[in-house]
Amino acid sequence: MSNAPSAGSRTLSLSRLREVLRDAKSKSLLEELIQTVANDARAGARAIRAQAERRLENDRLEDERIAGLMALRNDLESRGVHGIAGIDEVGVGPLAGSVIAAAVILPSEIQLRGLDDSKRVRPARRETLAEEIRGVALGVGIGECSVEEIDQVGIYQAALEAMRRSVASLSRSTEVGHLLVDARKIPGVSLPQTSIIKGDQKDASIAAASIVAKVYRDAQMERMGERYPAYGFERHMGYGTAFHMAALEEHGPCPIHRRSFAPVANAERRDRGDRARPASAFSPAGQA
């Protein structure tokens, strides 16, 4: 065993075997540990072997899942297509903040454990995955449409424009040959596109784009939470939670609320009445 004496497991304490299990980061190390404890009759050793075998099985299933997510991309690449980018957006539903899109080109082989639709990944893992994606990606582009643009053209068109901008951003640094898009076709782009329903659950590049866009927008909304503390944007990222709706009712909209969305428009109409609200609730922190 690379990180333990190679003699039988009887020469190793159970605590040492648990350390080996904890530190084993590869298939070969797990297999070596299983072989080492194969004839160890101690109950603790048998439990360690069972844990190692479960980890190997989980890794095998994850490898198969990731391979499935890479299937369409690999098929296109086998036909001579290069620069295959996944595109996704976040922020269509919130009552406040920009809509963000990301475009990501992944390499042919990836080790991105847990890669999935951003909504199905825990927040802490999303952040580390976003860093890992940026670390291995052949290119990443971000596109954004502001609250003012959303109110002017509507959220559907604004989301498409954010996606178009993410492709333009990516194209400035990386050659792009084909787009894999979550459930849409992006107007104003001459590149070939493939629209995939629930693409962020079916394709690795789209899933990667969804995670990069989500983490980017969440960080933006956390900054807005500091600027407009009465609304708790860092808690709900602008979505219409009970807390957000109560704050909107009490304080009226702030500058990053989308006036074209009915709950915000209704709150603004109510706010135009005689009821006063504290300036500190509306103004940026420290600028009451």
Structural notes for this entry:
The chain is built from 13 helices and 5 strands. By secondary structure, the protein is α/β, with parallel strands linked by helices. It has 3 domains: 9-68, no CATH class; 71-215, Ribonuclease H-like superfamily/Ribonuclease H (Nucleotidyltransferase, domain 5), CATH 3.30.420.10; 224-282, no CATH class. Strand 1 and strand 2 form a beta hairpin. The radius of gyration is 25 Å and the shape is flat. The N and C termini lie far apart (64 Å).
Oligomer: single chain
Could you say what the CATH topology of the largest domain is called? Answer: Nucleotidyltransferase, domain 5
* Adjacency order of strands in the biggest sheet: 3-2-1-4-5
Mean pLDDT: 90
What is the percentage of strand-forming residues?
A: 5-15%
Largest sheet: 5 strands, mixed
CATH homologous superfamily assignment of the largest domain: Ribonuclease H-like superfamily/Ribonuclease H
Form type: flat
**What is the number of E strands?**
5
Q: Which runs of at least 5 residues are low in confidence (pLDDT < 50)?
A: none
